[in-house]
């Protein structure tokens, strides 16, 4: 039997998909190229969304987070146009270090395997 998704999960998925399109296609800021929206989590009353962002190794994290924070009004306005919802949650952008940590662990494993040989 398929799993039922809650309203917050459905809205989070829609916001993730639309924000990814907005960031990659609709903003003219070259600093935002190469960013990925890895996850969106919304509180139960749908008023605040935490948006997890990942980037390339050369990404200047603080600068990118500041740029996204300043552009949150732009993103909310465009999300309101694209989503069929009464309101759009306040957006909080957080850099997601998960992929960086995974790459570091893989490098450690690779170096350990090379030493064993």
UniProtKB/TrEMBL annotation:
Keyword Cytoplasm annotated: yes
Coarse class of the protein's main subcellular location: cytoplasm
GTP-binding listed as a keyword: no
SUPFAM superfamilies: Ribosome-binding factor A, RbfA
GO cellular component: cytosol
HAMAP family in UniProt: RbfA
The protein's name: Ribosome-binding factor A
Species the sequence originates in: Candidatus Kentrum sp. FM
Lineage, highest ranks first: Bacteria, Pseudomonadati, Pseudomonadota, Gammaproteobacteria, Candidatus Kentrum
Gene: rbfA
């Amino acid at each position: 039997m398929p799993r039922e998704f809650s309203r917050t999960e459905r809205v989070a998925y829609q916001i993730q998909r639309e924000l990814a399109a907005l960031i990659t296609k609709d903003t003219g800021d070259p600093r935002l190229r190469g960013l990925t929206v890895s996850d969106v989590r919304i509180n139960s009353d749908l008023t605040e969304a935490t948006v997890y962002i990942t980037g390339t190794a050369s990404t200047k994290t603080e600068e990118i987070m500041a740029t996204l924070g300043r552009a949150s009004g732009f993103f909310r306005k465009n999300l309101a146009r694209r989503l069929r919802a009464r309101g759009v949650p306040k957006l909080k952008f957080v850099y997601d270090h998960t992929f960086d940590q995974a790459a570091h662990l893989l490098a450690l494993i690779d170096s350990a395997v090379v030493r064993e040989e």
